Amino acid sequence: KSLNSVVAKTQWGIEILNQDKELAKKLSREVYDIYPDYVQNLNLLGTVSVLEKDLPGAEKFLERALELRPHHINTMLNLSRVYFSQNKYTETEALLTEVNSSAPGEGNIIFYAVTKIKTRKYQEAVEIVNQYFGKDTADGSALTVTNYAKWRLGLPINQEVAALEHEFKELANNFNYLN
């Protein structure tokens, strides 16, 4: 493979992103100028935009990537976090519904349940967590989500409310690119 190919430049950009954001940005822009519809590079451009706190720019690149390759899990996860970071919870929920139908994992399930809470679907949040983790889970994030949702539903919980609100806020911030 030529080091000047779009694949090589994109891969190099991905590999060096955390060490040299500016070089990764330059490489991804070069690839974009040659082949604007290369999905892997659109994801890289979205990540560079996130690092620059340009969420509308990230949204544009990631939405285009998803148009070109619908159902691409990595793109859907990246875009869902961009939406979440912009308080676009309905859009986040739609993507996470699809992600969790094919790639459920602890982090994805928690993110989905947090999003359900953000859209005031408290009972659904409890059901999602219980279905994946079980009702007797000891997982801290799962307990935070279910206790918070139950509290919002007016159900009794065995936790002080201020501490619970703080825990939920901290958990939700894990999915927000701006925090």
What would you say this structure looks like, in words?
The structure is a single chain. Helix content is 73%, strand content 0%. The chain contains 10 helices and no strands. Helix 9 (140-152) packs across helix 10.
Task: Note the topology.
Layout (H helix, E strand, L loop, with lengths): L5 H11 L4 H14 L4 H13 L3 H14 L4 H13 L3 H14 L3 H13 L3 H12 L6 H13 L8 H13 L6
Helix pairs in contact: 1-2, 2-3, 3-4, 3-5, 4-5, 5-6, 6-7, 7-8, 7-9, 8-9, 9-10
Strand content: under 5%
Anisotropy-based shape: elongated
List unreliable stretches of 5+ residues: none
Structural class: mainly alpha
Q: In a nutshell, what does this entry contain?
A:
With 179 residues, this protein is mainly α. The protein contains ten helices and no strands.
